[in-house]
Specification:
Helix content: over 70%
Order of helices and strands: HHHHHHHHHHHHHH
Structural class: mainly alpha
Radius of gyration: 21 Å
Largest sheet: none
Number of strands: 0
Strand content: under 5%
Number of domains: 1
Number of helices: 14
Shape: elongated
Length: about 350
């Protein structure tokens, strides 16, 4: 994403956030909220921040192992940067649609073949959506009573479950059916040529065929490594459990004696309901839904302070860290060399 366009996205996100704060909290006694936050247990707030860091670390470890399978030696520090970039661009684009394209861009600057990067990210995101669907489905059953009286959230949750299932089907098809990828991308290139965004078709077709060849070879290697896919699935499950645990830690910081599994499943349902909405970061509707769900569970006395800390840690902190990371990755691209791909089995 070019910097002027990136700035526009940030301005839109910032304005949405400020308008949401005003509409939701215009009658909030802020002095009282500040006092409640200062009385919270600081070590648990610190643990929530650490949990957010571990959330990024899970993705970084998973990407490092996927790239190692394709004979790329990349440091954990670098893949941690890719994880932050994913969060940043997902957070400022509708439906979290910008994360993976941005990651591929930064990886290609580090001399990682786009075909390899695409297969690695497809594998990670396939496992991510499977984990989200499993945890969210369990949460919908376990936290069913807590969702009573929240008809809109229940409908959004059903939409979220269907969206996750659709993405799982799409990513599985892209990894398994090599001809599908070939047809889709060539049709897209032809469309770009017809609307004159691509003028000379043949050079682009040659470049695309080269990358598709790399993609097909990499997807073949990945299909031969079911153990790696299962390991990635375990990483994405831990990755999401850590993210869903942040509100629990904050509620405990504010001295609420709540059950861990109850809060974990409730947050999983809320996140799944909001994740696929075409709003950057789910701003506005996420805050309103959080207030509605958690107020019915614990009452409204300290809920504003908990919401503010939760969004600052699980959204604001990741956004700032991802923005800084994107600048660092741009300024200092790597010059990676691959050791060499193993041949696929016939």
């Amino acid at each position: 994403m070019k910097r002027p366009k990136q700035r526009k996205h940030l301005i839109v996100v910032g304005l949405l956030f400020l308008v949401s704060l005003y509409l939701l909290f215009q009658k909030t006694p802020w002095q009282e909220v500040a006092q409640q936050i200062t009385q919270a247990r600081g070590w648990l707030i610190g643990l929530a921040v650490t949990t957010m860091g571990l959330f990024f670390l899970c993705e970084a470890i998973s990407l490092k192992q996927l790239f190692a399978h394709f004979r790329y030696r990349i440091s954990l520090k670098r893949t941690f940067g890719y994880a932050l970039v994913d969060f940043y661009y997902s957070g400022i684009t509708p439906g979290a649609s910008g994360g993976q394209p941005a990651q591929i861009y930064y990886m290609s600057r580090d001399r990682i073949e786009p075909g390899i990067a695409s297969v690695s990210l497809l594998c990670f995101n396939l496992c991510y959506h499977i984990s989200a669907l499993l945890i969210g489905g369990f949460g919908m059953i376990y936290a069913h009573s807590l969702l009573q009286g929240h008809a809109l959230i229940r409908w959004l949750l059903i939409y979220g479950l269907l969206a996750q299932a659709g993405l799982i089907a799409l990513f599985s098809a892209l990894l398994i059916d090599e001809l599908l990828v070939h047809r889709l991308l060539h049709q897209l290139l032809s469309l770009l040529h017809r609307i004159r965004l691509v003028r000379r078709l043949e050079p682009w077709q040659q470049k695309l065929d080269n990358q598709l060849s790399e993609f097909q070879r990499a997807s073949g290697l990945l299909r031969q490594a079911p153990g790696l896919i299962l390991k990635t699935l375990s990483h994405t499950t831990i990755h999401l459990i850590l993210f869903y645990s942040i509100p629990y830690l904050l509620l405990r910081a504010f001295h609420y004696p709540v059950g861990y599994l109850e809060l974990l499943t409730l947050q999983a349902c809320l996140q799944l309901a909001m994740e696929s909405l075409p709003v950057p970061g789910g701003i506005g509707i996420t805050e309103a839904s959080f207030l509605s769900l958690y107020s019915s569970l614990i009452g409204g006395e300290k809920i504003v302070g908990i919401l503010i800390l939760s969004r600052l840690i699980s959204y604001g902190l990741g956004l700032i860290s991802g923005g800084v990371s994107s600048l660092i990755l741009i300024a200092r691209p790597l010059m990676l060399r691959r050791i060499g791909l193993r041949p696929t089995r016939s």
